[in-house]
């Protein structure tokens, strides 16, 4: 789907498709929360096929690796849990700044573009995700 900042006209032309994708993706999240894993996987596969998403090309770590990491977190190394906490902290810090300084839509879009790769990086390589989060925080002058 087109990037709304780079191709607003293309994004608007595909708006219904974007809404459908996000609605169906949200429903899969509810299926996962209900622990209906086979059904969730089937839904993800159907979405990927319909929207031509190459899941293998996403290079996401297998669930077994994430589960192992959860049971035995790496010492002094950023894992999925740590990268998630840092991402939440970064977003909350930006939200506080936005509230106090009345930041504009452009400020939010810039923050969104900077943080866009974080979610996938958290799955692919949490250490790189933490490094990116820390560099974005530094750009904005946020300290933990």
Describe this structure in words.
There is one protein chain. This protein is mainly alpha-helical and 144 residues long. It folds into 2 domains: 1-58; 60-144, no CATH class. 72% of the residues lie in helices and 0% in strands. It is built from 8 helices and no strands. Helix 2 (15-33) packs antiparallel against helix 3 (37-50), helix 5 (80-101) packs parallel to helix 8 and helix 7 packs antiparallel against helix 8.
Structure described in brief:
72% of the residues lie in helices and 0% in strands. The chain is an all-alpha fold and 144 residues long.
How is this fold's topology laid out?
Blueprint: H1 8-13, H2 15-33, H3 37-50, H4 63-71, H5 80-101, H6 105-115, H7 118-124, H8 126-140
Helix pairs in contact: 2-3, 5-8, 7-8
Essential attributes:
single chain, 144 residues, 0% strand, mainly alpha, 8 helices, globular, 2 domains
Mean pLDDT: 84
The tally of structural domains comes to 2
Please tally the β strands and state the result. Answer: 0
Which range best describes the helical content: under 10%, 10-25%, 25-40%, 40-55%, 55-70% or over 70%?
over 70%
Beta-strand fraction estimate: under 5%
One letter per element, helices H and strands E, the order comes to HHHHHHHH
State the separation between the terminal residues, measured CA to CA: 35 Å
Question: Rg to the nearest angstrom?
Answer: 17 Å
Biggest sheet statistics? none
Approximate shape = globular
Structural class: mainly alpha
Total of DSSP H or I helical runs spanning 4+ residues: 8
Q: Spans of 5+ residues with little confidence (pLDDT < 50)?
A: none
């Amino acid at each position: 789907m087109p990037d709304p900042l780079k191709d607003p006209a293309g994004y608007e032309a595909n708006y219904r498709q974007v809404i459908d994708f996000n609605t169906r993706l949200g429903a899969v999240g509810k299926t996962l929360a209900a622990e209906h894993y086979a059904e969730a996987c089937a839904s993800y596969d159907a979405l990927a096929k319909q929207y031509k998403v190459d899941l293998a090309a996403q290079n996401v770590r297998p669930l077994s690796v994430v589960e192992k990491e959860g049971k035995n977190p790496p010492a002094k190394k950023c894992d999925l849990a740590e990268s998630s906490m840092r991402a939440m902290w970064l977003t909350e810090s930006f939200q506080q700044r936005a509230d106090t300084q009345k930041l504009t839509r452009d400020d939010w879009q810039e923050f969104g573009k900077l943080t866009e790769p974080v979610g996938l990086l958290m799955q692919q390589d949490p250490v790189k995700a933490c490094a990116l989060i820390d560099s974005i925080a530094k750009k904005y002058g946020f300290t933990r």
